[in-house]
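User: Teach me something about this protein's shape.
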Amino acid sequence: MGKTDFLSPKAIANRIKSKGLQKLRWYCQMCQKQCRDENGFKCHCMSESHQRQLLLASEDPEQFMDYFSEEFRNDFLELLRRRFGTKRVHNNIVYNEYISHREHVHMNATQWETLTDFTKWLGREGFCKVDETPKGWYIQYIDRDPETIRRQQEQEKKKKQDLDDEEKTARFIEEQVRRGLEGKEQGEPVYTELNRENEEEKVVFNLCKGASTSTASHSKASALGSSALKEAGAAPTVKRKEMPQNSDQSKEKKKKKKTALDEIMEFEEEKKKSSRTDHWLQPEIVVKIITKKLGEKYHKKKAVVKEVIDKYTAVVKVIDSGDKLKLDQTHLETVIPAPGKKVLVLNGGYRGNEATLESIHEKKYSATILIETGPLKGRQVEGIPYEDISKLA
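Assistant: First, the predicted structure itself:
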């Protein structure tokens, strides 16, 4: 085996060395070529291709510098956004991770001489929030993506709506408590002291309607004789006959009258039925990938949601290949199983409850389910849309 053989130890060692990072002093940015040692870099500088690149750069050096600066800025910000998001991080940590890529644009080919100059420039241009500390410069990416801003506005709107609903519920409860207290005060009997202005005055009790009265005139007292006693004796019989009717009516009124707790429960039930959100992702459900941005390999493939991030993003595992992907809910859709299979309710008043799919209405794009969990267990729900349920993994 000769020295120049492809499988010789020296050839293998050279290939292994060429894969890793090399010294910056032996890198030519114009030709984008990395040399392994000083001799190789010297030979490259004397080559005809390098001389041609120098002639091209000498014609318009500003254009080449602007090109490399733009490439460096875009790659650096993309790494900062994708790797760290909007977290506050030391600029040197981001730079070390950026230069670990072999094909990166070197800073000595850009308009910035040092990393500090580049950090200050990012702060002046409004790409990042920068602040200097005794430990060095820290940067924080400012996300101005329209989709992110729209989501933030929707989240703030949802929080405000939840607060408004809580305030309405609190006011409703206070009103019910106030009404209950007023009704209690009106229903209490008022007791008065029995006073007689004349010692010889006779007191007559009217037992009708359960009220006690006193007559102050002597003429009325004298007029009451045997007939008055008969009337007084007959009054209780009349009262006894009317008592069952009044008791039945009072029971009916009690049945018809709703308590404050019943009204609150009905109010919460109606609120729950009418509550819908703009996010529907839940763990351990089966979904279908509908986006074509990932290629035909994943298009129309079924996956299982393993983790939900920020309500709108999910980490899914493709059932066929086992690959894990991070996708937005707009790139996914629900999966409707065959009747008799288990599903999970994703939106509406029955959100979060497991159910059994009983039937599918293809013309109405809806289904009939039977709730299996929660306080509404055993309830049959008809006309629930396809997008509100999905198959359980």
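Now, about its shape. The mean pLDDT is 78. The first strand starts at residue 27 and ends at 28. If you'd like, I can walk through any region in more detail.
User: That's plenty for now, thanks!
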